[in-house]
Design goal:
With 175 residues, the chain is mainly beta. It contains two helices and twelve strands; from the N terminus they run E-E-H-E-E-E-H-E-E-E-E-E-E-E. It has a six-stranded antiparallel β-barrel with strand order 1-2-5-4-3-6. The protein has a six-stranded mixed β-sheet with strand order 10-9-8-7-12-11, with no helix packed on it.
Length: 175
Amino acid sequence: MIRTEEVYKIGKIGKPHGVKGEVTFMFSDDVFDRVDADYLVLEVDGILVPFFFDEYRFKSGETALVKFCDIDTKEQAQELTGCNVFFPKKLSDRADDELTFDELKGFSVIDTAAGGKPVGVVEYVDDATENILFCVRTPDGAEVLVPASEDLVEGIDPEKREIRVSLPDGLLDLA
């Protein structure tokens, strides 16, 4: 059984492409092309399942068309639409201390400028624009957006699951 701590998210399966089982794969990391791997891990109904691929080809810098083994029809491919795609950490070429945005979910955000005051917990990271934001749920239940800027982030401690930031006065009042 594949455990969530053994993999990290690299993308999502889009809609089928053609009628022979090929799918569109939107990825944030092309590690599957850089290292010698013959499978990806898909989250199907909450379960992490390895899917071996016959072939893939790049459509753009962030999209590939993938043909998985034993997925031979448009209908079979349709069942994979929307599945999150993960890659095994043990096969990756990334450093051991390197984290993806998805792995920062659940980390506590601590404001060092306010004397180490907890801001809240990262619910997700919005990387849809050039200005990446941590979407943080505060202890009182409000959602605040904290810029994930190198100027503000002082450090990330994976063992403590903390992100230390130095926030300007009044930033949290904008929520």
